[in-house]
Design a protein that fits this description.
alpha+beta; Beta-Lactamase; 4 domains; six-stranded antiparallel β-sheet; elongated; disordered N terminus
Length: about 675
């Protein structure tokens, strides 16, 4: 949370002007009463009525109400002084003086009663203000789980009700044994930056956080316990600091301060304690909420790792993503995945993030370095300073790695490598929770590596099987061309010769002979089509483009409007590349012929310097294209699986877009190497 400066605007206090007005009204009342009291020409010779003296209580009451006890007593003393001359000159001085004394006594009692009433009124107002402040803080706490919003709102309310000039809120960072400033008011950003982090026990706030007791500092300007000059430079004097507690544990501290010396009443301190308890509970609730959110985020990211593993079998696609997620969830700055080669028993570092690419060339023995220790022991390792680690690899030290957390990549009982994340330049503390997160990711990544290796083996065997199939196809096609086709050619020619030479034979015989010759010709045509489907000689002799042209021409012969569009500069490719692309096109066009019921198909073949793209689009009835290879197997679409595997053999990608009634588009892109 970023602290920010907030200044409360100053407003004028209307009370001094109201007091001045009340003072003048009281003086005016005394003047009027005195004028009436002495207005008779022989006032000193006559004894006034008691009512006249009682009227002097009115300005006394007004002054006491408006100006307090001191104002009331001053006005009462002035009234007594004004009444004494006439009382002394009255015909019965003792009686008059008794009345003046009685008025003075009643006036004093009246002033005392009014002062008591005023104090009770002020006490009620303060109590109401404190209750309102507590209710306001409670409302802030219950309405939001945003810790920043809660702390800033509570700090504003505390300064308002206590009428203080500045305030700070610190939270305890237990891993570093420090207080971290999270909100402040009434300080300059420079002064706030000077106290942004305090050790537990340092200064006033550090002592309160350590001991958990409220502290009041009457004058902090010259207090030797004040360790940071930033606060002294702000001119803050009187301070009150209260711990923010929840379930007896100090979560942080709240400090309020004034630039003038002042005292705190018992009620003020009780209010501070109440605010501290409420804010402490808010901090705990917000922390719990943040913890739940963080666990949910971690679980979502772990689920994402699992989805990556189940939907992708290429390590180059899976592991870089896994590495980034591991860094994100642990707050690390860099990461590396080390893999153990079971044949050479060497450790390689093929996957890095935020580290120099040259580190991928580092190779160490199976028990060397941090990776060797983790793989050998099968245990996680946390290193605070990798530079001092006895097994540190110099290249990684030069890359700036400082703190490291490493876990094994495990699949069943096998340890396949190491997943490690670290900090760059500065040390940091990796917590047990970080290690637990990494271990979960490491198990998922281990499964991914095992699956990928199994799949790679399967692809190798599939490639060998496909190669053997193609060789067998080639052999059968060659034998069919060299033997069966030649026999049928010879048979057809001999039958044709017999037909020409048998002019004297019966017509029925000649008709039968012509039928046999036609059957031989059809058989030859079928054998040649069979040879073309098995392994067209044109593919080996002339290349991919003429072979695909033959597929399109054959489709046209069956009444389908087939079009071929070639872009780029056609060229010969490696034999395996041409064969795989031809088989994909052949299978796609066979599906159009057998299943699509299409009237039109367009085949596009585009040559680029480093790749070839091919797409086959038809206007047939379409189908719901499965999302994964597993779904293809379940749906029995083995031809599509063969197309995908041929594309993967070349390191390419194949995409099938189809919907019922909207036709089908098969797109393939493969990297190629010119001959």
């Amino acid at each position: 949370m970023t602290p920010f400066l907030y200044r409360t605007p100053m407003t004028s206090d209307p009370r001094p002007s109201a007091r001045r007005l009340s003072l003048w009204l009281a003086l005016l009342g005394l003047a009027v009463l005195t004028l009436l009291h002495y207005s008779h020409p022989f006032a000193l010779a006559h004894d006034p009525s008691t009512a006249e003296r009682i009227l002097y209580l009115l300005p006394v009451a007004a002054a006491a109400s408006a100006l307090g006890t001191a104002g009331g007593l001053t006005t009462l003393a002035l009234a007594v002084v004004l009444m004494l001359p006439r009382a002394l000159g009255a015909p019965h001085p003792s009686s008059a003086l008794g009345e003046v004394a009685a008025v003075g006594g009643v006036g004093g009692l009246l002033v005392w009663m009014l002062s008591v009433q005023e104090r009770e009124k002020e006490a009620r107002q303060k109590a109401i203000a404190r209750l309102r402040a507590i209710n306001a803080v409670t409302s802030i706490v219950t309405e939001s789980l945003d810790l920043g919003q809660v702390l800033n709102g509570a700090l504003d309310k505390a300064l308002e009700v206590l009428d203080m000039d500045a305030g700070l809120v610190f939270l305890v960072e237990r891993s570093a044994h420090e207080l971290v400033l999270v909100a402040y008011r009434g300080l300059s950003p420079e002064s706030a930056a000077g106290v942004d982090r305090l050790k537990l026990g340092e200064g006033f706030c550090g002592r309160v956080a350590l001991h958990g007791e409220l502290m009041v500092i009457p004058d902090s300007s010259n207090d030797p316990r004040l360790t940071r000059m930033a606060v002294r430079e702000e001119g803050l004097r009187t301070q009150a600091i209260v711990p923010l507690k929840a379930k007896g544990t100090v979560q942080g501290v709240l400090a309020v301060a004034s630039r003038e010396r002042r005292t705190f009443s018992r009620e003020d301190l009780e209010l501070l304690r109440a605010l501290g308890n409420h804010i402490g509970v808010a901090i705990e609730n917000a922390s719990l909420h943040q913890g739940v959110e963080q666990r949910l985020r971690i679980q979502r990211r772990l689920n994402e790792v699992a989805e990556q593993i189940t939907s992708e079998l290429e390590l180059d696609q899976i592991l870089p993503k896994v590495l980034q997620i591991a860094e994100e969830l642990t707050g690390a700055q860099a990461g590396v995945i080390a893999l153990l080669d079971p044949e050479s028993e060497e450790i390689h570092y093929p996957y890095l993030h935020n580290l120099p690419p040259l580190l991928t060339q580092v190779v160490v023995g199976k028990e060397e370095g941090l990776a060797g220790a983790v793989i050998h022991s099968g245990q996680s390792v946390v290193i605070q300073d990798y530079r001092a680690y006895p097994r540190a690899i110099p290249q990684f030290v030069e890359a700036g790695i400082v703190s490291v957390a490493a876990v094994p990549l495990v699949s069943g009982a096998r340890i396949l490598g190491m997943l490690a994340v670290g900090s760059l330049g500065q040390p940091r503390l990796f917590t047990p929770q970080d290690v637990e997160i990494l271990s979960g990711i490491g198990r998922q990544a281990g499964i991914a590596i095992e699956n990928a290796r199994l799949y790679e083996n399967m692809r190798f065997y599939a490639r060998q099987i496909i190669h053997a199939q193609e060789e067998e196809r080639k052999r059968i096609a060659r034998e069919a061309h060299d033997e069966t086709a030649q026999i049928l050619v010879a048979l057809s020619r001999r039958l044709e010769a017999l037909t020409v030479a048998g002019e004297g034979l019966p017509p029925e015989f000649l008709d039968r002979l012509e039928e046999v010759r036609a059957l031989a010709t059809d058989a030859l045509r079928s054998v040649r089509r069979f040879i073309r489907d098995l392994r067209p000689p044109v593919l080996d002799d002339l290349g991919l483009v003429p072979a695909v042209q033959g597929l399109v021409a054959a489709l046209r012969e069956e009444g389908i409007d087939a079009q071929l569009e070639i872009s780029g500069t056609p060229r010969r490719l490696e034999a395996e590349e041409e064969l795989c692309l031809f088989r994909i096109a052949q299978e796609a066009l066979n599906n159009v012929r057998r299943h699509a019921h299409a009237s039109r198909v367009a085949l596009q073949l585009a040559f680029y310097p480093t790749c070839v793209r091919m797409s086959i689009q038809d206007d047939g009835r379409g189908f719901e294209a499965p999302e994964s290879v597993v779904d293809l197997v379940r749906s029995g679409k083995l031809g599509l699986i063969g197309m995908q595997e041929r594309a993967r053999i070349l390191g390419g990608t194949l995409r099938i877009d189809s919907h019922p009634g909207q036709g089908t588009t098969v797109s393939v892109e493969v990297p190629v190497h010119p001959r």
